[in-house]
Specification:
The protein has about 270 residues and is mainly alpha-helical. It is built from 15 helices and 2 strands. Helix 2 packs across helix 5.
Length: about 270
C-alpha cells in the first residue's frame, strides 16, 4: 500500500482507529479471574507465569474482549502480550497497541549515537521481538533486538560497550546499545541501504550478497520478492512498512524506500 501511494504520489494513510471499548466490557475483562491472576503475577515480577496465565484466559474471550485485554496490557506497558492479543483478535487498526513507543528514550538515543533512522531501529526491534525483553529464539538469539551471544560479545569488543555476561542481553538498555551498534555495522557494510541491511540482519550478509548476484539495476521491491528465504522476505517487507509507521509516530516521516534504495547494483 505504501509503495502504491508513492507511485501515484499520494500521502500515506495509516488509518489509526482504536476500538471504542464500552465500560461494561472493560470491567468484565479486568475482573476476569485469569486476567487478575496474570496481572498479580506480573506485578510480583513473575513475568513468565503472568504471560502464561494471560494467554490461557484469552481463549475465553470474544474479539471485542480480546481487544480490551490488549488495551489493559498496553496500559500496563506490557507490550508483547498486548501485541500478541490484539493480533489474536485480528484487529489491525489500533496502531498505538500494535506499534507501541516502547523504550523510546533508549532506542532514539542509540539510533542518534549510531547515525541511524530512529524509525528503522524501532521497526527492527518491533519485528525481532515485539518488545519482549526476555525473548529467546530456538537458536539462542536473545532480548529485544535478538542478538546471538557470539555477535553480542564481538560487538561489545568492537564498539567498547561493556558486557560482563551474555545474561545481560535481557537488560533492555544493554541489548539496545549492542543491537544498534551491530545494526550500524551491517548498515555500513551495505552502503546505507536499509533494504539490504534489514535482510542481512535477519538472513546474514553472505546470503544477501549471494542473492544480489545478477541484480544490477533491479528495483528493490522486485528484488525483495526474489529473496528465497520466506522468513527474510517477510521480515524485510515488515521492517520497511513498520519504519513508515514509526516515522509517523516520531514526527520524522520516512518513505518506505529512500531514493537510493529503490534500485541497487550487486554489492
Amino acid at each position: 500500500g505504501f509503495l502504491a501511494a508513492d507511485q501515484v504520489k499520494l500521502p500515506y494513510q495509516l488509518n489509526n482507529k482504536p476500538m471504542v471499548i464500552p465500560p461494561k466490557v472493560m470491567q468484565k475483562v479486568r475482573n476476569t479471574a485469569g486476567v487478575r491472576r496474570a496481572i498479580e503475577f506480573h506485578d510480583r515480577g513473575q513475568i513468565v507465569d503472568g504471560r502464561r496465565e494471560w494467554y490461557h484466559v484469552s481463549r475465553l474471550f470474544s474479539r471485542e474482549e480480546l481487544v480490551t485485554q490488549a488495551r489493559i496490557a498496553f496500559d500496563k506497558q506490557w507490550y508483547f502480550p498486548a501485541i500478541r492479543t490484539i493480533s489474536q483478535a485480528q484487529y489491525w487498526d489500533d496502531l498505538d497497541i500494535r506499534f507501541p513507543m516502547a523504550y523510546q528514550s533508549t532506542l532514539t538515543r542509540e539510533a542518534r549515537k549510531r547515525d541511524l533512522h530512529s524509525s528503522w531501529v524501532f521497526a527492527i526491534t518491533r519485528q525481532e521481538s515485539a518488545f519482549m525483553v526476555d525473548a529467546k529464539s530456538h537458536v539462542g538469539a536473545t532480548g529485544l533486538m535478538q542478538l546471538m551471544p557470539a555477535t553480542a560479545k564481538e560487538t561489545s569488543q568492537r564498539f567498547g560497550i561493556p558486557l560482563a555476561s551474555t545474561q545481560q542481553l535481557i537488560n533492555p538498555d544493554v541489548n539496545i546499545q549492542l543491537g544498534a551498534a551491530y545494526l550500524r555495522q551491517v548498515y555500513g557494510q551495505f552502503n546505507g541501504n536499509r533494504v539490504l541491511a534489514s535482510a542481512a540482519y535477519n538472513g546474514g550478509g553472505g546470503n544477501v550478497r549471494k542473492w544480489l548476484r545478477g541484480a544490477d539495476h533491479l528495483p528493490a521491491d522486485v528484488w525483495i520478492e526474489t529473496i528465497p528465504f520466506d522468513e527474510t522476505r517477510q521480515y524485510v517487507q515488515n521492517v520497511l512498512a513498520y519504519s513508515v509507521i514509526y516515522g509517523d509516530k516520531l514526527n520524522a516521516p520516512v518513505p518506505i524506500l529512500e531514493w537510493h534504495e529503490k534500485y541497487f547494483d550487486e554489492q
